[in-house]
Design brief:
Strand order of the largest sheet: 3-2-1-4-5-10-9-6-7-8
Shape: elongated
Number of domains: 3
Radius of gyration: 28 Å
CATH topology of the largest domain: Na+/H+ antiporter like fold
Distance between the termini: 84 Å
Largest sheet: 10 strands, mixed
Length: 675
C-alpha cells in the first residue's frame, strides 16, 4: 500500500514558474466558491482541499514557493485584523468580561483534557504533553469570513468568541514561552525583560495608534493612501509583537482593535480592506495550509493515525463542551453554541506555530508523527468548524430576521442634495451610515442648478462633477447611488419635486454659515423652503471632520419629542451612526423623553455605548457648546412650527449654531411630522 501511494507522489512539481503558480491559485480562488455553492459546502473547505490536491503531498502540481509563506502570513494577519476591526468598543466593553471568561473556559478544558490524553493515551512526557495541550487549547478564526457573509459580525456570540480567541492564543503562547524558557534555563532577568517589552509594546499601540490614525485620516482623504497607511500599521504592530516575544497574530488583532472606530463599516476604506483580504490574501493562506497536509501519512503510519484520532476527538469534544458551558452560563447566548463552537474549534496558524516550536532542533520535544497529526487536526477541525459555523450562523440569522425587519424598517430613499464641492465626500459618507441597506437603490444624489442663461453651462458642469464624486465614494463602499441633476429657477422647488417624485424618506442638505445678514430664524431661503414644504425628515448637516474620526454624538432632544411620528426613525439613525463610527452616544433630554430613548436602546442596541443626561429645560442646550469639541458631532432635534414638540426657542437655533458651535460638526434635524 505504501509503495502504491508513494508512486503517485511526483518527485518534482509540474509548475515552478511564479507566474503560472499565481495563475493556478487565482483559478482555484475563482472556481472554488462556484463549485462548492452548488454542493452547499462552505468555500473555505474547497480552498483547503484544493491545496491538498495541488500540493507536494497530493498530485504535486505546483511548488509551494515563497509566495505562499509571504501571502499566507499576510492572510492570517488579515483574518485577525478584520475580526478586531468588526468589533466596536461598545461591544468589547459590554462583552469583554464574558469574552475573557469564555477564553479561559475554551483554553482550560481542552488543555486539561489534552494533557491527560497526551500523557496517558499517547505516552508523552509532561513537557511534550503541555505543548500538545496548547495546540488543542488555541485556535484560529479560520471560519470568521463565513460569519461576515451572514452579517453577524457584531452578534454577542461572535464578539465573545473573538475576544476568547485572543485570550486563548495569548495564554497558550505564554505557557509555551514559560515551558521553553524552563528548558533553556532562562534567568529571572529574561522574564523581567519579557514583561517589560510586553508592557511597552501594549502601551505604544494602545496610546499611539488611535492618535496617529486620526491624524492621518483627517489629513489625507485619498482612499488608497489610507489603505496603505492602515496596512503599514498592521504589519508594524505584528513586527513589534514578535520583537516583544509575542506572536504576530496578537499584534495584528491589537492594531485592529485600537483603530476600529476610525474605519466605519460602510466606508470606502473598509471596502478596500475587505476586498483585498477576501479576494486574495485569505484564500492564499487557506490554500497554503492545504498544501501542508499529507493524506498519505494516514495510511502509512499507525502512530500518526492514533495521534491524529486522539487530537481530533479530544480537541473537538473539549471545544464543544466549552461552548456549551459558556452558553449555559450566559442566558443571552442561548442558541449560539454551534456558531461559538465553529469559531473556536478550527486550528491553523496557532497550532502550526506551536508544533514548529516543539519540533525545533533546540527544543526537540515532538517528532514527525506529532507534526503530521497536527496537520491532520488542522484539516479535520477546519472542515468541522466550517459546517458548524455555517449552520450556526444561518440559524441565528433566521432567528434575528424578524427583529431586524421590524426594527427601524422605514421605507423611502435617502436623498442627498449637493451644493458645495468640498462637502460632497463627507455628506455621502454620512448618508451611507444612515441609509436602510434592505431597500434597493436606497441612496440618491441630487444637484439643482439655477436656471439662468449666463452661468447655466458652468453650473451644470460643476453639478455633474459633484455627482460623479458622490457616485465614486458610494461605489467604493459597494453601494449604487442613483443621481439626478435638475435645472430650475427655484432650487428649493426642484428638491421638493424630487422628494415627491421618488418618495424619499429623508433629505440631507448642506448647512452653511449663511446666517449673517439674515433673520436669526433663517437657515437660508433654500433650506427654509425645503423644511416647510415637506413633512419628511430633513437633516441640515455641517461636517468639519470625516465622520469616521468622531468620538461622540451629542444629541439634544426637546421635551415631548417621543410623540412625534419620526421619533424612532431619527433615533434609529443616531444608533446607526453610533455603530458605524463606533462613537459614544450622549442623549440630553427631559427625563420623560429619556425613558423612551433608554427603552429603545436597551431593546435594540444594547451593545452601543450610550450616556443619558437629564436636560429638563431646552434653554440649557447652549451649555453643550462648552463640552463639544472638534471630535464631536452635535445633533439638535428640532420641530416644525405647530407640532407638539415645537418650542419658540427653536427660532434662534440657526444663529446660536453660527455663534456658539462654529468649530463643531453640527446636524439640525427636523423629524417626520404628520398632520
Amino acid at each position: 500500500m505504501q509503495h502504491i501511494i508513494n508512486s503517485i507522489h511526483l518527485p518534482l512539481a509540474l509548475i515552478t514558474d511564479p507566474t503560472w503558480i499565481f495563475f493556478v491559485v487565482l483559478i482555484i480562488i475563482l472556481f472554488s466558491p462556484i463549485l462548492l455553492k452548488r454542493l452547499r459546502t462552505p468555500h473555505i473547505i474547497g480552498l483547503i482541499l484544493a491545496g491538498v490536491l495541488i500540493g507536494q503531498h497530493g498530485f504535486n502540481i505546483i511548488e509551494r514557493d515563497r509566495s505562499f509563506e509571504i501571502f499566507g502570513q499576510v492572510g492570517i494577519y488579515f483574518i485577525m485584523f478584520l475580526a478586531a476591526l468588526e468589533m466596536n468598543m461598545g461591544s468589547v466593553h459590554q462583552y469583554g468580561r464574558k469574552g475573557l471568561l469564555f477564553g479561559l473556559i475554551t483554553y482550560v478544558i481542552p488543555f486539561a483534557s489534552g494533557f491527560l490524553a497526551a500523557h496517558y493515551l499517547l505516552g508523552f512526557g509532561a513537557i511534550t504533553s503541555v505543548l500538545l495541550s496548547c495546540i488543542l487549547a488555541s485556535h484560529t478564526l479560520i471560519t470568521y469570513p463565513i460569519v461576515g457573509r451572514y452579517g453577524l459580525t457584531r452578534h454577542p456570540a461572535v464578539v465573545i468568541s473573538i475576544v476568547a480567541t485572543a485570550v486563548a492564543l495569548f495564554v497558550a503562547l505564554l505557557v509555551i514561552a514559560i515551558t521553553v524558557g524552563t528548558l533553556q534555563e532562562t534567568t529571572w532577568f529574561f522574564w523581567v525583560l519579557f514583561a517589560f517589552k510586553c508592557v511597552v509594546y501594549g502601551a505604544f499601540v494602545l496610546y499611539c495608534y488611535p492618535r496617529l490614525g486620526k491624524w492621518f485620516l483627517r489629513r489625507y482623504d485619498d482612499t488608497i493612501m489610507q489603505f496603505i497607511f492602515i496596512l503599514s500599521l498592521v504589519f508594524l504592530s505584528a513586527a513589534l509583537a514578535e520583537l516583544a516575544g509575542l506572536e504576530g497574530l496578537l499584534g495584528a488583532f491589537l492594531s485592529g482593535l485600537t483603530i476600529s472606530r476610525l474605519i466605519p463599516r460602510t466606508s470606502p476604506l473598509m471596502s478596500y480592506i475587505q476586498f483585498v483580504a477576501n479576494a486574495l490574501f485569505i484564500p492564499y493562506f487557506l490554500i497554503g495550509v492545504g498544501m501542508l497536509i499529507d493524506l498519505r501519512s494516514m495510511f502509512g503510519d499507525i502512530q500518526t493515525i492514533w495521534i491524529m484520532l486522539v487530537m481530533v476527538i479530544v480537541g473537538t469534544s473539549s471545544k464543544w463542551l466549552a461552548s456549551r458551558i459558556m452558553c449555559w452560563i450566559s442566558k443571552d447566548l442561548r442558541g449560539g453554541t454551534l456558531m461559538m463552537f465553529g469559531l473556536t474549534n478550527a486550528h491553523a496558524a496557532g497550532a502550526l506555530a506551536i508544533v514548529m516550536i516543539g519540533t525545533a532542533p533546540e527544543v526537540n520535544l515532538m517528532d514527525s508523527s506529532v507534526l503530521n497529526g497536527t496537520v491532520m487536526l488542522i484539516l479535520f477541525s477546519c472542515i468541522i468548524s466550517s459546517f458548524a459555523t455555517n449552520e450556526g450562523a444561518r440559524k441565528l440569522a433566521l432567528a434575528d430576521l424578524d427583529t431586524e425587519e421590524n426594527q427601524g424598517a422605514w421605507h423611502g430613499k435617502c436623498l442627498v442634495t449637493y451644493s458645495q464641492p468640498d462637502s460632497v465626500s463627507l455628506l455621502t459618507q454620512l448618508a451611507l451610515s444612515i441609509r436602510n441597506a434592505r431597500i434597493p437603490d436606497s441612496l440618491m444624489g441630487l444637484t439643482v442648478t439655477f436656471n439662468d442663461n449666463e452661468g447655466e453651462a458652468e453650473g451644470y458642469k460643476e453639478a455633474r462633477r459633484m455627482l460623479e464624486e458622490a457616485v465614486s465614494v458610494a461605489s467604493a463602499a459597494h453601494v449604487d447611488m442613483k443621481t439626478l441633476s435638475r435645472l430650475s429657477t427655484n432650487v428649493a422647488g426642484g428638491i421638493l419635486h424630487t422628494i415627491r417624485e421618488y418618495d424619499c424618506g429623508e433629505v440631507l442638505v448642506c448647512l452653511t454659515d449663511r446666517t449673517t445678514g439674515m433673520p436669526k430664524s433663517s437657515l437660508g431661503p433654500v433650506i427654509d423652503h425645503v423644511i416647510g414644504g415637506t413633512n419628511r425628515q430633513v437633516m441640515a448637516v455641517r461636517l468639519i471632520v470625516p465622520p469616521g474620526t468622531l468620538r461622540r454624538l451629542i444629541v439634544a432632544v426637546p421635551q415631548k419629542a417621543e410623540y412625534e411620528a419620526g421619533f424612532y426613525k431619527w433615533l434609529e439613525h443616531m444608533c446607526r451612526m453610533g455603530e458605524q463610527f463606533d462613537c459614544l452616544l450622549e442623549f440630553n433630554a427631559h427625563p420623560d423623553t429619556l425613558s423612551h430613548i433608554k427603552s429603545y436602546m436597551w431593546r435594540y442596541h444594547v451593545s452601543l455605548r450610550a450616556e443619558y443626561i437629564e436636560m429638563a429645560l431646552w434653554t440649557k442646550v447652549l451649555s453643550l457648546s462648552q463640552r463639544a469639541g472638534a471630535d464631536d458631532l452635535v445633533v439638535f432635534i428640532s420641530a416644525r412650527p405647530g407640532f407638539i414638540s415645537y418650542k419658540s426657542a427653536f427660532a434662534g437655533l440657526p444663529l446660536q449654531i453660527h455663534r456658539y458651535f462654529s468649530h463643531t460638526s453640527v446636524i439640525l434635524l427636523y423629524p417626520d411630522q404628520w398632520s
